[in-house]
Write the structure tokens for this entry.
Amino acid sequence: MTINTDSALAMARLARLDLGAEPADLTKLAEDFDRIVAYMDILAEAETAGIEPMYSPMENTAGPRPDEVLEPEGSAGKAELILEQAPERVGRFFSVPRIF
Amino acid sequence: MTQLWQLNLAQCSEGLKNKDFSVTELTEACLKRLTETEPAIKSCLAVLEDQALETARDLDRRGNDSSRLLWGLPLTVKDVFCLKGAPTTAGSRQLSDYYSVFEATVVRRLKAHGAIILAKTNCDEFAMGSSTEFSAFGPTRNPWDRQRVPGGSSGGAAASVAGFQVPGAFGTDTGGSIRQPAALCGCVGLKPTYGRVSRYGIIAYGSSFDQAGPLARTAADCGRLLQAVAGPDAYDATLADCPVPDFVNQRPLKPNELTLGLPRQFWNADLHPQVAKVLDEARNLLTKAGLNLIEVDLPNIKYAVAAYYILASAEASTNLARYDGVRYGFRQPDPGDLMELYTKTRQTGLGPEARRRILLGTFVLSSGYYEAYYRKAAQVRRLIKNDIEAALTRCHFLLAPVSAIPAWPLGSFLDDPLTVYQMDLMTLPLNLYGGPGLSVPAGLGDDNLPVGAQLWGKPMSEASLISAGRVLESLWPKLPEPQIPVI
């Protein structure tokens, strides 16, 4: 897989990143990205037929538990404190600009 | 005369118990040392002087409580642990003004055991990096040479211990971020088993890898720190439901009781001459003392860097999706619409390495590439786990270098991300596997820079891992104190 500035921009859009306006920066970023992905291609050599993917070291340990709301110690009534962290809010709501 | 800030954790605890000095005296001594050395090493993002002194006086008033493992002991925590009363920045501009409304389980347990948290330490942004240079607030300096990096991402934690600001610290290790800075700064660093220590309240990077653990001047001190925080937590469903053994009072091991496996892929790697020299000598000391050293093979280790950076970046891209400028943290002013709010906020709020990993993670998870990269990397992860498990059937622990090179000059690799990723080869396979690891100083090179070696163990083997670490410590040269200009 080869990465160029177009594919870097497509990934940036998916990742909700603005890669900036400087063409030199974008070229460097795409080159770095390309070298990294080219290095990742070493995995194609690995013989993995029939190998179950391992997504976490803790396999099969999180058993079912009662569906109960756990309020971490001292968290009761913290909604207002959490809302205070909002860059912009209207009353009890987070506020964002128009969608389109 | 020994100064209070020169004592290790066990010595501090003993002195407090014997009333040789008070908690306030110890805290003041560490705060003074921190203030004097901080301009040179810049290990801290926030110093919690008032809170620390208040807690110290309170502990003194109430008297020593021997049931509390860390009673009166001053520590630092990496700035990825949520703690009330100070910002939790994760080294990022995105969170430069973020105040958590709750505390990490690790922080709560440390406080419950009577620890005094003196400062929050610097780190690479969101714990992504190997040098602490990706902190939005500037790099930390290596206490042994201020023109060199301390390692990372827990570079501030390692520098705070190695610089004798505090006798112990907490960091996190996702791909080596405790063990590597410990090695580069010359202290002991313990990455516990994945599932041993709660991640509740720790800013997430790679959720199938992240693990919190201690840094200190001795393996025994790391055991004491782990004891205080280990074990199940109702707020972290990924913890193993198994008993926590006694890490503090373990039977000492004799050197001839230990068989260590040396992975040939690491020992035959291209090691820096100073690293090779120190480690050769360290290995000779082990053999002379009667340890049984055998060569072991990790055939799939050549895939480890690629597999790790695919999986960890994928997890980072999802974990960091939350930094969107809506609910907390930095928000780009005056965005035109919602999409611009997201993109401009993330472009300005997040630094270059975090953005690079988000892009990489987005790529490997995207339609058309998922099977070839993400799923394939997860399969390779199992191959690597199988290799390590097989090697550990032939010995008690694996012994490996931590870093192929000693601490490097600031700025050396900033434009070369792939080389930096490859430098994590000897630490990150352990995170793919999930077992515990302990980095111990092996000696000082002719360049006056510390070199470390690490032990890897089976999951939940920390008690014997710490005992084995004590054997290595007893055989290897004790590092002198780094000379830091004080003001």
Q: What stands out?
A: Residues 23-40 of chain A form the longest helix (18 residues). DSSP finds three helices and two strands in chain A. The two ends of chain A are 34 Å apart (CA to CA). Strands of chain A lie at 89-90, 93-94.
